[in-house]
Design brief:
With about 190 residues, the chain is an alpha+beta fold. The chain has a single domain, classed as Alpha-Beta Complex (tt1808, chain A). Strands 1, 2, 3, 4, 5, 6, 7 and 8 form an eight-stranded mixed β-sheet that branches. It is globular. The termini are far apart. This is Type I restriction enzyme R protein N-terminal domain-containing protein.
Length: about 190
Amino acid sequence: MPLLETIYEEFEFANDMQEIQASQLYQPYYVLLSHLFPPEEGYIVVPHYNPPIPSRSVEFKNIYTVKHNEADVLFFLQVKSSEDLSNISSRQEADLQMQEKFRHITAAVRIGMLYGVCAMGTKICIYRLHVKTRLLSRSLELVTNTAPVVDCWNIDILTPEGQGKLCKIAQHTKEMSTQIRQSCLISD
């Protein structure tokens, strides 16, 4: 599913800039997440401008969490500047923040797999937590180090491939959420 023209326009400035500050991406990512998880389907995109958890970083940026009817956390996205991508310590700090967020919200997760995305500019790294096993992977490999290479951010959301991957994650997340809601209705 390609991005709607209005969403693409929100990110269009990124094509012309070498360095994109995180604050320039807050609105585009909010619009994108609201498209992928529409409020009319009961999804709520919640921006957190202050660290929702104690963070070791003064450079903390913005995190969006997606919930369904204000209940379970289903997905989250952290926004960083594009310049952070070229700095190993910035990538390491972003990775630590993502791991902290997963640890913090695991108790509020009832779906089988929790996705988190770390965006640096329009490049994203996809994290997956298998909730039962507590195994966390980043870009399809287990998280074993805290100095992820640039290649972990190998998906550009402005490309059809990147949009497709993000849409598949949103669809899978919504399917897991629907299964949980249906099983709650059956057990009531």
